[in-house]
Amino acid sequence: MAINLCVLFGGVSPEYEVSLRSAESILNHLNHNTYNIYPVGITKQGKWIYYAGTDWSRLPANTWEEYPENCPAAISPSRGQGLLLWREAGVETVTLDCVFPVLHGENGEDGSIQGLMQVAGIPCVGSGVEASASSMDKTVTKLLVGETGIRQANWYLARRESIEHNLEKL
Question: What pTM value is reported for the model?
């Protein structure tokens, strides 16, 4: 029996284009006999769209949004609902076995998507909420690494106020 896998890509992030290229690579290498693949793109404006095509080269070309059979989509936070697809005939519900977030930067690697999956009860590829959030914030990462005794380069947190008032000293 095939696994229902939602591949999330795009996102409201400066790294949108990187995500599209990463998703193309992943989608080109997934075994289509093992997985029922549900590619869902998030536009730069935050709109979730189910990409109904199979030409993955449309992702980095940024023409995936224009595919005629696309439809609005969302992952429901209600456990058991999974992926919601707004088709012309009504809302289709797809039970998901796993979500593969291919989202870079803010709103993707920062724990937000992982939190949604945790609330929805859907397994998610990659780190969990805490690991994602703490590794996205480099100051938190440095503090955690320092507490474990792992050697690291010296660092200093420069805040706007300290730069404005102590630029020469910095």
Answer: 0.85
